[in-house]
Amino acid sequence: MTTSPRRYHITTFGCQMNKADSERMAGILEDMGFEWSEDPNDANVILYNTCTIRDNAEHKVYSHLGRQAKRKQEQPDLTLILAGCVAQQEGEALLRRVPELDLVMGPQHANRLKDLLEQVLEGDRVVATEPVHIMEDITKPRRDSTVTAWVNVIYGCNERCTYCVVPNVRGVEQSRTPEAIRAEMAELGRQGYKEVTLLGQNIDAYGRDLPGVTPEGRHKHTLTDLLYYVSDVPGIDRIRFATSHPRYFTERLIKACAELPKVCEHFHIPFQSGDNEVLKAMGRGYTQEKYRRIIDTIRDYMPDASITADAIVGFPGETEAQFENTLKLVADIGFDQLNTAAYSPRPGTPAALWENQLSEEEKVDRLQRLNHLVGIKAAERSQRYFDRIEEVLVEDRNPKDPTQVMGRTRGNRLTFFSSDIAQLKGQLVQVKITEVRPFSLSGEIVEVRHPVTV
Ligand code: SF4
């Protein structure tokens, strides 16, 4: 097989943080003169950006990698890179396990890809997993969308949730400066992007590591202050942020979201469990009562806000009654969407070593029961959109129906309607909702008539 020179392919597993890291690494490769190859078999640099949150994702990585390792035996100039959380966790051991691998690099090293790859191209096998201070603003991401973009605001996490590998693999919190974040958003605005999602593993921790205290004694730079600071970036019409932690979610932040017109009324706040004992075992640092109070406060300020979350079922020791508390929370709150997962023990985390693990059958049974309820509640929540006019930011063509375009409401509901993508991509459009489904909507474009001023 012939491969054209200097082509790369990246396969990304896992969360938005990984997707944002992949976009930055793609930008670095393009700066180095590499071109994107849709087909990995036609690329001579292959990068897997990996995730350890689920067993499934980890197994997939090894099967992809195995195929390319075989290919490398016939094509020795192929460069194989394993980045992300599996790389961080396994480190040097990976080079022994997969002798064809050239570079193993943890997520904190994403911005260093050029240096690391140059060492590889000179003939070294390289492991980069030591903690580093993340280098600021040297990368220009190659973004997958031309309408919406992610902007990292804080890397790492200082929490110690007992099920989570993130603190081990992504290191301690490192906030970017408000100036650097605003500059990146301004550049996105100039390039025609319309929506920015500010990203952090625990975004409410933003600014705690930056210097400065206010006269009232709080950190000078908080997520709330950041939202005010970036809320008027020209060209950017919508701002979102994720992922929030209930322990640090403040009324001040909620007030800012209500006040700032560009900040969307959509809150992604994982609760993980509706039972206080389980929350304690998870090391989450809040109670279900506190979580409910946060949602009540959001709804006091913004009655129509969308609420989405993450939940885990089958955590070690979770009893049927404790699981039912999660069902009760979900029934009471009525989430617009809930990402659910059965607990899976991750190496290097405290909960993985506990003896009170639940059987797979129990976990699957609970997951199914929870998902059933989530579908019912999401369908109920969708009803409120029926016959309403919603503002939709058009992102792309509907891949299943080229006569339709798709975009999202401010509440983050995926919405489809008939129109021409060439005319509407990146536009904010008023859409009358004519059909509602649990997790998406359909509608018709509304002619917007501007009021006549006399
Ligand atoms: S807050 Fe908890 S679950 Fe989230 S990344 Fe940090 S340790 Fe993991």
Automatic annotation (TrEMBL):
Reactions catalysed: N(6)-dimethylallyladenosine(37) in tRNA + (sulfur carrier)-SH + AH2 + 2 S-adenosyl-L-methionine = 2-methylsulfanyl-N(6)-dimethylallyladenosine(37) in tRNA + (sulfur carrier)-H + 5'-deoxyadenosine + L-methionine + A + S-adenosyl-L-homocysteine + 2 H(+)
Cofactor binding summary note: Binds 2 [4Fe-4S] clusters. One cluster is coordinated with 3 cysteines and an exchangeable S-adenosyl-L-methionine.
Entry binding sites for [4Fe-4S] cluster 2: C157, C161, C164
EC identifiers of the protein: 2.8.4.3
Domain of life of the native organism: Bacteria
Family of the protein in this entry: Belongs to the methylthiotransferase family. MiaB subfamily.
Function: Catalyzes the methylthiolation of N6-(dimethylallyl)adenosine (i(6)A), leading to the formation of 2-methylthio-N6-(dimethylallyl)adenosine (ms(2)i(6)A) at position 37 in tRNAs that read codons beginning with uridine.
Protein name as it appears in the record: tRNA-2-methylthio-N(6)-dimethylallyladenosine synthase
Native organism: Aerosakkonema funiforme FACHB-1375
Source organism phylogeny: Bacteria, Bacillati, Cyanobacteriota, Cyanophyceae, Oscillatoriophycideae
